[in-house]
Amino acid sequence: MPIPLLDYSPSSQNQRVAAYEIPGDEQPRIFTTDNLLTGSDFDVLIAAAYRQIFNEQQMTVFSRQTALESQLKAGQITVRDFIRGLATSDIFRSRNYDTNNNYRFAQMCVQRILGREVYNEREKLAWSTVLATKGLKGFVDDLLGSDEYLSNFGYSTVPFQRRRILPQRSEGELPFARMARYDAHWRDNQPGINNIYRFHNPVEPFNLRNFIRGADWKAASGVVLLFTGVIVLTLLISYVSNITN
Prior knowledge:
Blueprint: H1 39-54, H2 66-73, H3 79-87, H4 90-97, H5 102-114, H6 121-144, H7 147-152, H8 184-188, H9 196-200, H10 208-214, H11 217-244
């Protein structure tokens, strides 16, 4: 029998206070299907969902869930279902659940799914207990079915980090995921608002000139010499065998 969510006292954090500030660069952009979206708008929304759940460093072509993307675009599932699919996918499990303890993983999911930091260690313990008793899918279902998630994001809005502006501070809260900047090769292979086409069209048409230009001919020549040596050795053995017979 699974243990119910333990009680914890929500601390007085900025995400629990109604916003009065004027919208600006500090406010997150909201992605929702409440409005009629075009194909490119759906691509932007999907990229925002990947960024929220996987973070930038895990946004690779290998992380894509193409079946879920198709179902979302066809209206067969909601954004909430799409978030559930990403958070319970095998790639998310292997890169996040399998590589962290329950406490750290519970904190990460509260950040990415509920859009805020955990209130205290008591809340982290409470959600990690749910994870231990109900498993990954039951844990994610409880987060997505909580009153907090439904009241802030509902069924059609991609989760985001809430209330980054702090009163009486010159700077707002930093993003939950902060990573080192990689080179151009890494950047060009990541999906994003300005790189949606590359993310959703990873297969490029074959170009013989580019293939010849980018081929490693030193390695290719070594393979050719190896096969040539094997053929010559085989013929030599066959010749010697015929002579002896």
